[in-house]
Design goal:
heterodimer, A: alpha+beta, four-stranded antiparallel sheet, 19% helix, B: alpha+beta, 2 domains, six-stranded antiparallel sheet, 8 helices
């Protein structure tokens, strides 16, 4: 193990830890040779994928098609075959043709199916009729999306409600879809899925709302923003960051400690070109350079989610790549721990760190549960039916290795776990755990410290299930969750998004104010006494967000935390906007999706808030793209137009606490315009559970005139340190135990702006 | 439970119990617990027997273990019937205490019940208080103005007692004419979907007339299947 890799906990507050380039740090390495351990991981993933049965993986459409077509031929060879069985196979073929991007072939397959059913006398009941018509409509709609939103992509593409540059130039697809949808609605006026898609199809033609038949119109006021946040234009295309890929995660972090936030982006597929894990270096001048190959990452694929932390306390952010989610029995892939070598290269150290496991996962959290100054790791697992995988707790041994101890500590939870959130909700200095997922796992585990007289970090630890006592009740099906202090009262509240709909009609019903069975989000306010109160309705978040990715930050630097959710599911019909909510003074949330231009209809996954141009306000990176093979879409970077509020950036350096101070609590006391004190509370972390934002704190100060003090609670020592002499609109480094803040230079640059900045650099035909 | 007692007294279980004794290495405390459990589960301990009656009962048990079980004569049958009647009364009294109108009139009891039901059956709760679990169907969702063809059955709050007279089978009905909880639930459903619903009293018959077989002020369980939606226009 190299010295660089294991700097260990710092002995004392050394000034160089605050320098942009600490002594000995190297510039980006252009000659890094991919390590053997990384190559082994690549080979391991490839081997598992190749050995898997494509028919048991609903997302491998291209692999399933020849097998299904062979089934179809074999069935037909049996004296014409069983008509019902053949109908079923033909439908599956149509679905997989669509999912693999063969939209014209999918439509043709539906036509062939109709002819076959007619010839063979297969009854076309309402269910089959709806399925066929919806399938035909989706074939057309998807063809329209491919021709316009993808191949002629611009910053308005697929932004809900579609208007301006988002209106399709090539309108055949949407027009044909409208024909199918209107036929379906004529037969079945109450089909809200068809009605929703019809309204969207008209939007793509620029004919919404006027062109939509009145009886099927969903009025535009249903989508109106509750607040004007100003338009955040998508500048990813202009910066070469509009990676056109499937569902995936994002890390926004300063990997080389040069003062600029870089990006790592994953995609969950297994194609070694299209689904490559990628890393982009922020050059600090308005450009980014992809350094995937130089970083030693070539060949690493299939990360659905990325979470970062500094496991070896060397001051450089390491990254977890989480794999296998949603694939059930076919999802037993290892996750990767990528050690940041400090020179913008990464080494897959999963095996040598003792982290090699084969459980489907897309959620994990770094936290120092035992307060030894080293980040431990909790990894959620997805169990389904007989395929049971318990969640794992890895204790950091402080030497580059981990020891699995979930069962020993009673936290080997079994469930379909989709989110692992950590936070010290009871302010006792020990980070607690919250787990949630599909079908019920919803557990708040209070960290009660050592279980016996042994107080050492390796002691048996006590986690107590306090879910019910704390008042946490639902949702039964959820995806991302997070702890945050949304009301700035000094204790952590809990947000749990819902994730269950019958079809997109539930989302339509939610917008239309009708009853529906969609799963709504819940916001639990911390009462400060170990219990929470469900304030979802009063706070305006009791809605069907259908969120997958999520994160939070401060859009307008008013000091109140806002949130953004990436939405959808694998179904092409689930065209629902990603949604942004502005925190209105800690009282309630107002939707700003449409005023900010955040309503991306394509599937939204990993999200990170961060000030990528160092101009003081947070921009937002969103990993867009779906699960099925053809559901590619360019990622987005929303540039913050600025709101004139003040801000402060703080980089915390732990000495006894873990090096990047993950879990440290910060209270910023500012003097407002009236001369009164105002307290803002933050916790160092990467944010919500799907998307990984910078560990540098970026705090909006509103109209503050001055910063009175910054109080930092260091969880390992339990000490609160007060820093003064801090000016607004600066970046400071605060070192645990050091007497004074160290101001660091903050070099800024301008992001492209305006509606043309989001276009894809390549024009496809 | 009384059937278990009857079996024991009549003998058929004896062989099994004897065989268990021959092979099981369970501690004697466990055997004692089996005895206690048998008496408690059958509510025998609540029948107010005298010491002499208890002693006679124990002697009967011992005799059965020796293969000398006492014959069931008319007096025995009468006693068994009385035990059956009294235990049934006790069960009903308990049900009333847990699921009767008086219980639900207690502050907070309804909310606790709904919470428990939601937990037990993995149900969701809407803003109105309706508890629901829906197995999705497809296509159309009704509005209150539409008519639907539905089937449903109704159970009392104890979840097991069915009110057969209230159930319907493939009946056409205007959605708005149904109790408010059903109006809400049906709008959540699509054709061919099925739902389990727990309707708080104000979402079923509220202040109106409560059908025979139900008790005013108690929750009702509906198991609903939506077959067809017939648009109003």
């Amino acid at each position: 193990m190299g010295a660089l890799a294991f700097a260990g906990a710092l002995g004392a507050a050394e000034p160089e830890v605050c320098d942009p380039r600490p002594a000995g740090a190297k510039p980006p390495n252009d000659h890094f040779v991919q390590p053997e351990s990384t190559r082994r991981m690549i080979a391991r993933i490839r081997e598992i994928y190749q050995a898997a049965d494509p028919l048991r993986n609903p997302f491998r459409s291209a692999d399933q098609l020849p097998l299904l077509q062979a089934q179809e031929r074999a069935e037909e060879a049996r004296a014409g075959g069983d008509p019902l069985r053949l109908t079923d196979v033909k439908i599956k073929i149509a679905v997989h043709l669509l999912q693999s991007g063969q939209t014209a072939e999918a439509f043709a397959q539906y036509l062939k199916l109709e002819k076959f059913m007619q010839e063979r006398g297969v009854p076309r009941d309402a269910r089959l009729d709806g399925l066929i018509r919806t399938g035909k409509a989706l074939s057309h709609l998807r063809a329209g999306e491919r021709a316009n939103c993808l191949l002629n992509h611009n910053g308005d593409s697929c932004l809900f409600p579609i208007a301006g540059g988002g209106v399709h130039q090539l309108q055949d697809g949407s027009r044909a879809a409208i024909g199918e949808l209107e036929a379906l609605l004529t037969l079945n006026a109450g089909d809200l899925r068809a009605r929703w898609l019809l309204n969207i199809a008209y939007m793509t033609l620029g004919e919404y709302p006027g062109g939509v038949p009145a009886r099927w119109l969903i009025p535009p006021e249903r989508f109106a923003a509750e607040d004007d946040i100003g338009r955040f234009h998508d500048v990813a295309g202009a910066l070469g960051l509009a990676e056109n890929d499937l569902a995936g995660g994002v890390v926004m972090e300063d990997f080389d400690r040069d003062g600029f936030l870089d990006l790592m982006i994953s995609a969950w597929g297994f194609d070694e070109e299209k689904d490559q894990l990628r890393v982009f270096r922020n050059n600090g001048d308005g450009t980014f350079t992809e350094r995937t190959h130089q970083a030693g990452l070539t060949g690493l694929v299939s990360g659905l989610n990325l979470i970062h932390g500094d496991y070896n306390n060397d001051g450089y952010a390491d990254v977890l790549v989480l794999r296998g989610a949603w694939l059930r029995t076919e999802g037993h892939y290892p996750f990767s721990l990528l050690r940041n070598n400090g020179d913008f290269t990464f080494t897959d150290v999963t095996e040598e760190a003792g982290l090699l496991q084969f459980k489907p996962t897309q959620t994990a959290a770094w936290f120092d549960y035992n307060g030894d100054g080293w980040l431990d790791l909790y990894v959620g697992a997805e169990s389904s039916g007989r395929d049971s995988s318990a969640c794992s707790l890895y204790r950091n041994n402080g030497d580059g290795t981990f020891t699995e101890c979930a069962a020993e500590h009673g936290v080997d939870v079994v469930g379909y776990v989709k989110s692992v959130a950590t936070g010290d909700y009871n302010n006792d200095g020990r980070p607690d755990l919250f787990l949630s997922g599909i079908g019920g796992p919803r557990i708040l585990l209070r960290n009660d410290g050592p279980a016996g007289s042994d107080r050492s970090p390796r002691a048996r630890w006590k986690f107590t299930d306090v879910t019910e006592a704390a008042g946490i009740d639902g949702p039964n099906n959820s995806f991302p969750s997070w702890f945050w202090d949304f009301d700035n009262d000094g204790d952590l509240d809990l947000m749990v998004t819902g994730y269950a709909i019958q079809d997109v009609g539930d989302v339509a019903a939610d917008y239309m104010g009708r009853p529906h069975a969609g799963q709504k989000a819940k916001l639990y306010r911390n009462n400060g006494d170990g219990t929470f109160t469900d304030i979802s309705r009063a706070a305006g978040v009791s809605r069907v967000l259908h969120a997958m990715g999520a994160n939070f930050g401060d859009l307008d630097n008013d000091g109140w935390l806002d949130f953004y959710v990436g939405t959808g599911d694998p179904d092409f019909a689930t065209l629902v906007p990603s949604r942004m909510f502005r925190n209105d003074g800690g009282r309630r949330f107002k939707e700003v999706t449409t005023s900010g231009g955040f309503g991306q209809l394509q599937k939204g996954h990993g999200i990170a808030f961060g000030d990528i141009d160092n101009d003081g306000d947070q921009d937002i990176y969103s990993a867009v793209g779906g699960a099925v093979q053809d559901d590619y879409y360019p990622n987005q970077l929303f540039a913050n137009p600025g709101h004139g509020n003040s801000w402060l950036k703080l980089e915390l350096v732990g000495v006894k606490t873990n090096r990047m101070a993950l879990g440290a609590r910060v209270k910023v006391v500012v003097i407002d315009e009236q001369g009164a004190e105002r307290a803002l509370h933050r916790v160092v972390g990467t944010g919500a559970t799907f998307g990984s934002g910078p560990l540098r704190l970026e705090i909006g100060l509103g109209r503050a005139r001055a910063v009175d003090r910054v109080e930092v609670f260091w969880p390992v020592t339990g000490q609160t340190q007060v820093f003064r002499s801090i000016e607004p609109e600066r970046l400071y480094c605060l070192v645990e135990g050091a007497p004074a803040p160290v101001q660091r230079p903050l070099r800024t640059f301008a992001l492209p702006h305006g509606p043309d900045a989001g276009g894809h650099p390549h024009h496809h035909h | 439970m009384t059937s278990f007692l009857r079996c024991l007294l009549a003998g058929p279980l004896l062989g099994a119990v004897t065989a268990l004794a021959a092979t099981s290495s369970a501690p004697l405390d466990a055997y004692a617990a089996v005895g206690s459990s048998m008496v408690q589960d059958n509510r025998l301990s609540q029948l107010g027997w005298t010491e002499a009656q208890v002693e006679a009962f124990v002697q009967g048990v011992r005799a059965a273990f020796r293969g000398e079980g006492r014959p069931v004569n008319a007096a025995t049958q009468a006693l068994l019937n009385e035990i059956g009647r009294r235990t049934q009364e006790m069960e009903q009294a308990e049900l009333r205490a847990r699921f009767g109108a008086e219980a639900f009139a207690r502050p907070g009891y309804l909310q606790t019940y709904l919470k428990e039901m939601a937990k037990q059956f993995q149900l969701e709760r809407s803003d109105s208080g309706l508890c629901y679990g829906i197995r999705p169907g497809y296509g159309a969702r009704p509005t209150p103005e539409d008519s639907v063809v539905i089937s449903y059955k109704v159970n009392l709050a104890d979840t097991t007692t069915e009110v057969a007279a209230l159930g319907v089978n493939r009946q056409k009905v205007r959605v708005a004419d149904l109790p408010p909880g059903l109006v809400e639930a049906l709008q959540m459903m699509t054709v061919d979907s099925a739902a389990m619903l727990v309707l708080p009293p104000d979402l079923s018959y509220g202040d109106g007339e409560w059908p025979e077989g139900t008790e005013r002020g108690t929750p009702l369980l509906f198991t609903v299947k939506l077959h067809e939606v017939i648009p109003a226009h």
